[in-house]
Amino acid sequence: MAAGATATVGGCVLIFNSQNRRPVTENAPVEKKAVSFPAPQPLPSRTEQIERLRAGKTFDVLVIGGGATGCGAVLDAQMRGLDAALIERGDFSSETSGRSTKLIWAGIRYIATAIAQLMRFRNIIRPFDAISDFRSEFKMVLGAHRERRLLLENNPHLTNWVPIAVPMKTWGIWPPPFGHPLFSVAPLTLPGVFKFYDSLSGFSCPPSHIMSKSRAARKFPQLDEDVKYVSVFYEGQHNDARTATCIALTAAEEGAAVGNYVEMIDIIRENGDSGKAVGIVARDHITGDDFEIRAKSIIFAGGPFTDGLRRIEDPKAAPAVNGAAGTHIVMPGYYAPDGIGLLDINTSDGRFLFFLPWQGSVIVGTTDRKGPPESTPGPPEDEIRWLLNETEKYLSNDIKVRRGDVLSAWQGFRPLASDPNAKPGAPISRDHIISTNPDTNITFITGGKWTTYREMAEDVIDRVIKLNNLGDKAGPCRTHERPLRGGVGYERNIPIQLVQDFGVSEETAEHLAKTYGANAFDVCRMAKPTQKRWPRFGNVLVEGYPYLECEIEWACKNEMVITVKDMLTLRTRLAFINSEAAKSVAPRVAEIMGNTLGWSKQEKKSQLAEAQQYLSEFGGPVPNTTCVRKLTTVTKNDIRDLFKTLDNDGNGYIDLVEMIQVSETLGIKMTRDEAKEIFDKMDHDKNGKVSEEDFIDWWNSVGPDNELRKSLDKKFQASAEKLGTGSESRGVMFG
Predict the structure, then answer these.
(1) For the chain, is the Cβ count within 10 Å smaller at the N or the C terminus?
(2) Where are the beta strands (DSSP E) in 91-149?
(3) Could you tell me the domains of the chain?
């Protein structure tokens, strides 16, 4: 059949793709024609970029905030022919955009919540509003499908598909997911729902499918055997910080002026303290210098920190953004089979919980906690414990989910937005918010999600072009056809070429190709001999991980990295994968960066101290006992171990005498009557015996303030704090 030929099957028009003959439905986006982009030239150094920013030029667009949306906006503006600039107070993607679940997902949960909201009883009296809300949510999901497809097809060097298993342990779920009875039958309908989900992107993703109980046991042996079947669907995945950094560097390739570690400290207005904003005062945090940047239009893209920017603009600005924190933990790779994740659609607090392979480890998240945004990555200890507890639900009893297996943990804040400049009675957006202050003409954008960053950037640039009469200069949006840095010239066989041409290991070659794309060749040219038979070139930064020492030199010379902290957290993801490994190698990173950038001994010492302080905020295998606890504090396997400690004679149950003996050993003062009262609460069957399950139920029901539980918890904490002192802990600490 000829390329582009059509056929009619069952009344549906099919269009055949010229490359792989895969039919797609007519209303799906047709694969675009290849667009040629010139090979990128060497980027200006950070010093040169700062000189451009402070040269006195008036830019058409100035973006404040170097997360995914801000970087996307400056790239969009520059590619339209506008003179664009961006500043970021830290490194690119140092906040929300670098602390996500690493998924490029199209929003299966949003479909479910939209249906649940539509079917609420209260909508009987507001049917038109309910339908309008549903259509708005569904439109957002369609947009996410489109953007997911673009991001994966344009950037195979940064993205991949990941299969996600949803195990079903019963044919009915109660209490139902999303709090609606309709979803109690989810086990019966889920395969059909996932096929519908596939169709929303024109079946451009790998097909969802059912995995039988026996096949699931072979493919995912870590799963609990008590499952009826497993439904599998696909989402996109990426290294979020790398993707965002590549967006910023691509903008620089296109000619935009971009500066990291530059912060806005004031607004410049036409008439002093009044009138439209015509620029900002910026501070270079590396040199300490203050300077002006003039611009015809200014965009705030600060994510959950946008209100802080708006208060510089107007100290009395009404709040527009609330923060919601999410904690993630990273476990050793053996917790999941290579290349397949798991999704719990009905956690104890109603959220989705992902359990995903990532960078050779397993990432678990996320929680949801409202509160003011913070820059610290340090997560609350109670949320780490909650994630461990939820993880156990679907894993085999043969696998002990241990607190000491947490290699790293962090928190990030996502923005929950509303428009303070909207007219009274205007509908609340269920997607991102774009709003312009009529007094200053400054526009801010916030909300949305990682997947739709490009669409958000396009929307906000459309807005400022219209507001500032830039239409004569600006062309149409072109970011939908632009591969990000490293994508021009990328081929899927690059890892093989790197092994053959440079003698690096296969693991390292795969990592370099999926990080730097076509630029991986230039990175390898900096690799030094290992003095080994194999690999011959490429000294690794730390054993067990693919990062090379030459990557540090490359990033310093070509990608504007300037701190040890950023090298360990964002440019490599070592701190996010194994916080203890990152701490151990920080001095070596400081040495390499110092030699490359010409640091003095004092600068090296200062950089190392900053990095060590920041790395100490990450979670790791040893619990942070200073954190406030609100949730379950130990995992079920920990509780089982405590039960075995209490069961002195090993007969499988605790009796009243054993409980009194243990209480005395722990120094808990209580009378026999008080002890019996506690024992009776544990003894569900009233037979004088407390089983392991009875003990677990009691533990989770009494709360952390119970005296006996607190004493047992302290016993557990004391054991956990000993972790890492012996040789047996090294495999846990370094994966």
Answers:
(1) N
(2) 103-104
(3) 46-98+241-320+418-481 (3.50.50.60), 159-238+324-414 (3.30.9.10), 493-617 (1.10.8.870), 636-718 (1.10.238.10)
pLDDT at 427: 46
Return d(Cα 382, Cα 390) in angstroms, integer.
Answer: 12
Other C-beta atoms within 10 Å of 126: how many? 12
- Taking the CA atoms of 158, 161, 167 and 173 in sequence, report the sign of the dihedral they define: positive
| Percentage helix, strand, coil for the chain under 3-state DSSP, each rounded to 5 | 40, 20, 40
- Sign of the Cα torsion 282, 284, 288, 289 reads negative
Closest CA to 427 of 416, 439, 415, 419: 419
* Cα dihedral 25, 28, 33, 35 in deg (nearest 10): -160
Residues 6 or more apart in contact with residue 413 via CB below 8 angstroms? 95, 96, 303, 304, 323, 324, 325, 326, 373, 374
Does the structure show a pLDDT above 90 at 483? yes
For the chain, counts of helices (H) and of strands (E) = 24, 21
Q: Which of 224-233, 274-283, 566-575 has the lowest mean pLDDT?
A: 224-233
Sign of CA dihedral 719, 723, 726, 730: positive
CA 183 to chain centre: 27
Helix (H) or strand (E) holding 361: strand 361-365
